[in-house]
Amino acid sequence: MIRRFALLALMLLPAGFAQAQEEGIPLLHSGTDINNVSSLQRGARNFMNYCSGCHSLKYLRYNRMAADLRITEPELAANLIFTSAKPFDTINSSMPADALNWFGKVPPDLSLIARAKGVDYVYSFLKGFYADKTRPWGVNNLYLPSAAMPHVLFERQGLQKPVFKSEPDGRGGTSMVLEGVEPMTPGALKPEEYDQFVRDIANFLDYAAEPIKAKRQSLGVFVILFLLVFFVFAFLLKKEYWKDVH
Length: 246
Ligand code: HEC
Description:
By secondary structure, this protein is an alpha+beta fold. It has helices at residues 2-23, 37-50, 62-68, 73-80, 99-103, 113-116, 119-126, 154-157, 191-209, 213-242, and strands at residues 57-61, 90-91, 129-131, 139-141, 158-168, 174-186.
């Protein structure tokens, strides 16, 4: 048994190393809170306004979202449904079929992105756009090199420029390596406001990826508490049963 575990650990080790090396620029910490309902409400609003034109959330229904985020049906219809969808429909994008010709890539469904790549990734990605004239939309992304997505929050954030550092290239010379970004032109939001804006979106996508998450976590605490209390009684009972034997 132990040998089998050791073997498994050995097999997983190189994979972990490879991942750490590939990552390059470290992700930012998003600081989201899945229990913060007003953050989730703002995130839903931001998502519907700025993202749902291109991205769907095909595993989430409007009315499920409304119930979880304490949004009433009239509010839902008035502020969050921009298509002809009914409240019981799933959240589809209004992207026509020829998106491939526009972007070279179809905007992916974002239902599971927070589980697939992590909520910190979503947050970092939305803060990672920088000016790059060689790209079709004039922007590139620190965390997704050659990203096909335009910087749709450009008016909110403003534009950032890339920062390079020189590193030895192993052949005696040096090469310029992308290190990070710094502000270039300001946007409508102050930097902290923009952080909050995209934190809310990341939080909302975390919720969308697992609508039961908040409930699961609070239930988990109760289960552990129950087990602790139950342990005391089970232990006392065991002592009672065995007291004549010892
Ligand atoms: C104009 C269309 C468009 C809009 C609007 C848009 N996106 Fe995208 N998005 C794309 C495309 C195209 C891709 C595919 C990028 C690629 O794979 O290179 C993408 C990819 C992504 C990815 C996946 C990145 C990855 O690692 O695969 C995330 C996350 C994302 N978008 C989030 C958002 C969020 C959040 C918004 C709203 C603030 C948004 N997008 C608005 C077109 C759009």
